[in-house]
Amino acid sequence: MFSVPLIGYVISFASTSLGTVALIIVPSFLFVVLEVRDLWREATSSEESKENLTEKNNG
Prior knowledge:
single chain
């Protein structure tokens, strides 16, 4: 068997409302924000590449 020292403190903290916010809500929020940022970057780069193809075909 193995043991993780001081894990009881983390579990105890996670069961509080501040612990829930710190360990679940904040990382989830950051994940959503970063995914939206990546989607935004992909959408704008896709529009730019479409514009470049249109310019090459017309010019």
